[in-house]
UniProtKB/TrEMBL annotation:
<feature type="transmembrane region" description="Helical">
    <location>
        <begin position="99"/>
        <end position="121"/>
    </location>
</feature>
<keyword id="KW-0472">Membrane</keyword>
<dbReference type="InterPro" id="IPR010652">
    <property type="entry name" value="DUF1232"/>
</dbReference>
<dbReference type="GO" id="GO:0012505">
    <property type="term" value="C:endomembrane system"/>
</dbReference>
<feature type="transmembrane region" description="Helical">
    <location>
        <begin position="56"/>
        <end position="78"/>
    </location>
</feature>
<keyword id="KW-0812">Transmembrane</keyword>
<protein>
    <submittedName>
        <fullName>Uncharacterized membrane protein YkvA (DUF1232 family)</fullName>
    </submittedName>
</protein>
<feature type="transmembrane region" description="Helical">
    <location>
        <begin position="21"/>
        <end position="44"/>
    </location>
</feature>
<dbReference type="Pfam" id="PF06803">
    <property type="entry name" value="DUF1232"/>
</dbReference>
<feature type="domain" description="DUF1232">
    <location>
        <begin position="32"/>
        <end position="68"/>
    </location>
</feature>
<keyword id="KW-1133">Transmembrane helix</keyword>
Length: 124
């Protein structure tokens, strides 16, 4: 069972890189490119919406949200095109990082903090 989980994790990592490549390819349909860019940016970002130290919820994105996003986007990309992206991803040894995902997540957290501050100040 542990080997199956490790294999699943390796395939997820490969598919994230494949989505990164799909988002940059002009051959990918535009809606799939946008969705692939969003999923890859989030999955490759060095921080998460919900930090992993938060009990239960911290791992929710790693176990549910990211795999679900990958699954949805893979369905949007033609199979033969996705096979090519997977083959390219398998050859990449260094996992790319997403600074766009980092900036987006920081912007979301800042917006949440600003809204919370506004709400608190309004209540006084």
């Amino acid at each position: 069972m542990l080997e199956a989980a490790k294999r699943w994790a390796r395939l997820l990592k490969r598919d994230v890189v494949a989505l990164y490549l799909a988002a940059r390819s002009p051959l990918t349909p535009w809606l799939a490119r946008v969705a692939a860019a969003c999923v890859a940016a989030y999955a490759l970002s060095p921080i998460d919406f919900i930090p992993d130290f938060v009990p239960v919820l911290g791992y929710l994105d790693d176990l549910l949200i990211v795999p679900l996003g990958i699954w949805v986007v893979i369905r949007m990309i033609p199979a033969e095109l996705m096979a090519g992206f997977r083959a390219q991803a398998a050859e990449i040894t260094a996992k790319p990082r997403s600074m766009a995902g980092l900036v987006f997540i920081i912007a979301v957290w800042l917006a949440v903090l600003a809204l919370a501050g506004w709400w608190v100040l309004r209540r006084e």
